[in-house]
Specification:
Shape: globular
Number of domains: 1
CATH superfamily: Mog1/PsbP, alpha/beta/alpha sandwich
Strand content: 25-35%
Number of strands: 11
CATH topology: Protein Transport Mog1p, Chain A
Largest sheet: 8 strands, antiparallel
Helix content: 10-25%
Structural class: alpha+beta
Radius of gyration: 16 Å
Number of helices: 2
Distance between the termini: 12 Å
Strand order of the largest sheet: 1-4-5-6-10-9-8-7
Order of helices and strands: EEEEEEHEEEEHE
Length: 194
């Protein structure tokens, strides 16, 4: 399991990514775990709540529009018989970008959990997926906070449109740090350094 540095807590935290060219509001009491091995920090729910979600942000490459890219990505996950699609919805970000949300229910683990994918267009032709792993109880508690965070997403003024060359995520190639969406229990970072 990857050890994450201590969370920096504030209320609320503006997440501003010069590399990604976007910004959004992190919910009250949540934190940002910075890891030098990742291009984007991990957003985590309140550290004292074992139900809290964590969010991995990744840039994607793929052909077609954003909805087609989202459908193709989720279709790969749905090949697992223990995963089902619970919600597929659209919403608008703070700067009126059309975005898509998918909520998958995974039942193979000892307790069901949710895997969420938020697909958003960034500056230029860049596309991002926010991958969330959360327990079923955490989904009930933090689902609206996650939606509000995503709705606050907006392009940074003067954002660059060049994609960093190291990003090559495609619909069948999701990073393991998002939790394993193909059936195994996700490896959540431990809270409080335990």
């Amino acid at each position: 399991m990857m050890a994450l540095p201590a969370l920096a807590l504030a209320a609320p935290i503006p997440y501003d990514s010069p590399v990604g060219g976007f910004a959004f509001q992190v919910p009250d009491g949540w934190g940002i775990a910075r890891d030098t091995r990742e291009i984007y920090p991990i957003v985590m729910g309140p550290k004292d709540d074992d139900r809290a979600p964590y969010v991995v942000i990744t840039e994607m490459k793929g052909q077609g529009d954003l909805l087609a890219l989202g459908d193709a990505t989720v279709k790969e996950s749905l090949k697992d018989p223990y995963i089902s699609l619970s919600v597929r919805d659209s919403f608008h970000t703070a700067d009126q970008r059309l975005a898509f949300k998918y909520v998958l229910l995974t039942t193979e683990a000892s307790q069901p959990y949710r895997q969420l994918f938020y697909f958003v267009d960034g500056p230029g032709a860049r596309r991002f997926v926010f991958m969330v792993t959360v327990s079923e109880a955490g989904w009930k508690r933090y689902g609206q906070d996650l939606d509000n965070m995503m709705k606050s997403f907006h392009q940074r003024p003067g954002a660059a449109t060049v994609t960093p060359p190291s990003l090559t995520l495609t619909p069948g190639n999701l990073p393991t740090s998002a939790g394993n969406v193909t059936g195994a229990t996700p490896q959540l970072p431990r809270r409080g350094g335990k």
